[in-house]
Amino acid sequence: MSFLSEVQLGDKFGPFVAFQEALGFVPNLLHAQTLLPRVIEVQAHIAATVLLKDKALSRIQKEQIILTVAAARQVTYCVTLHSEILSSLGKSEAQLDRLLTD
Q1: Dist CA 70 CA 76 (whole Å)
Q2: SS (H, E, C) 19-48
Q3: Is the per-residue pLDDT at 2 higher than 60?
């Protein structure tokens, strides 16, 4: 539940389905943006193209970079989100702590 107005886009909304399949959940940030579904569609496209595909960097490496930048910028939501994602990808609490403190 957000402090912002939300629109119910439903469980069949394409980007929500894509995030659910890729991450196992739909980030709350996306629910807070439901007044602009096109923005969510673009975010899903960027995530699918850049983050979720292994290219020169693996998905874990990309998530680690995002987590480190979020921590440096003190963005609590993103630190929590990407810590959870890395944890679901097999990173231990100790490994996450090292990323956040180094």
Answers
A1: 7
A2: HHHHHCCCCHHHHCCCCCHHHHHHHHHHHH
A3: no
